[in-house]
């Protein structure tokens, strides 16, 4: 593209799409880790996944995971893999509780996502209803929100991981819980998430989706999953909202 017009037109269209997504949303469902904070900023998720694998090994359960699963740097994937083989077992419950404890321990070193706090407050101020729909423990979410003074913007609508691990996103379960509790139509809501599983869950629930990608790698993954509307910062979202207020 050489001419300025060709470069500005798609940008203007994107701004218009963003404006429409945001102004239509009367209910906003936030994923937690990513759009609101980086939970494991100081407390690496891959180390937690490694710890889970070691913990299983120490119990003679090395064979429970495939070689590929043992290398996965995501604690939720390890949990899900164990659950597929031993759904509802004490082993899964213990592993889940251990992950919750790790998430709680990560809260003090979590990094707030830039513009997330004012965005949450502004959205609340203009009368939208907010909810958190996450694969993390709702206990960790509540604790983080308390450190930022943001609980009242969401409570009681925090829908996180339960013992039913097969209902984690991409299953739309937590979104449907939020919609039901808020008495919201899917089309009047907006999900903000940072992973393909957020997009897939939103799609299954019929909720419009805005992707938040803090880097090119995240954006590529979201685009590959089919997400159309993606921002690299929450700042333009906040701007649209302020102009609308
Ligand atoms: Mg996330």
From TrEMBL:
<dbReference type="GO" id="GO:0008967">
    <property type="term" value="F:phosphoglycolate phosphatase activity"/>
</dbReference>
<protein>
    <submittedName>
        <fullName>Phosphoglycolate phosphatase</fullName>
        <ecNumber>3.1.3.18</ecNumber>
    </submittedName>
</protein>
<dbReference type="InterPro" id="IPR050155">
    <property type="entry name" value="HAD-like_hydrolase_sf"/>
</dbReference>
<keyword id="KW-0378">Hydrolase</keyword>
<dbReference type="Pfam" id="PF00702">
    <property type="entry name" value="Hydrolase"/>
</dbReference>
<dbReference type="InterPro" id="IPR006439">
    <property type="entry name" value="HAD-SF_hydro_IA"/>
</dbReference>
<dbReference type="InterPro" id="IPR036412">
    <property type="entry name" value="HAD-like_sf"/>
</dbReference>
<dbReference type="GO" id="GO:0006281">
    <property type="term" value="P:DNA repair"/>
</dbReference>
<dbReference type="InterPro" id="IPR023214">
    <property type="entry name" value="HAD_sf"/>
</dbReference>
<dbReference type="GO" id="GO:0005829">
    <property type="term" value="C:cytosol"/>
</dbReference>
């Amino acid at each position: 593209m050489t001419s300025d017009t060709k470069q500005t037109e798609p940008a203007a269209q994107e701004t218009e799409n963003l404006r429409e997504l945001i102004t239509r949303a009367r209910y906003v469902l936030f994923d937690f880790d990513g759009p609101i904070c980086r939970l494991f900023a100081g407390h690496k998720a891959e180390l937690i996944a490694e710890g889970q694998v070691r913990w299983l090994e120490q119990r003679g359960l090395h064979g429970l995971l495939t070689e590929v699963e043992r290398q996965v740097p995501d604690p939720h994937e390890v949990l899900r893999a164990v659950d597929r083989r031993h759904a509802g077992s004490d082993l899964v419950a213990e592993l889940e509780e251990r992950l919750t404890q790790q998430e709680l321990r990560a809260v003090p070193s979590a990094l707030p996502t830039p513009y997330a706090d004012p965005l949450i407050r502004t959205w609340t101020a203009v009368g939208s209803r907010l909810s958190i729909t996450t694969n993390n423990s709702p206990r960790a979410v509540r604790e983080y929100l308390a450190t930022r003074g943001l609980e009242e913007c969401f409570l009681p609508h925090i829908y996180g991981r339960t013992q039913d691990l097969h209902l984690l996103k991409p299953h739309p379960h937590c979104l449907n819980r939020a919609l039901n509790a808020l008495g919201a139509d899917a089309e009047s809501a907006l999900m903000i998430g940072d992973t393909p599983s957020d997009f897939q869950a939103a799609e299954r629930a019929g909720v419009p989706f805005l992707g938040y990608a803090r880097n090119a790698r995240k954006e590529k993954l979201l685009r590959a999953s089919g997400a159309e509307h993606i921002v690299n910062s929450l700042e333009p979202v906040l701007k649209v909202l302020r102009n609308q207020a």
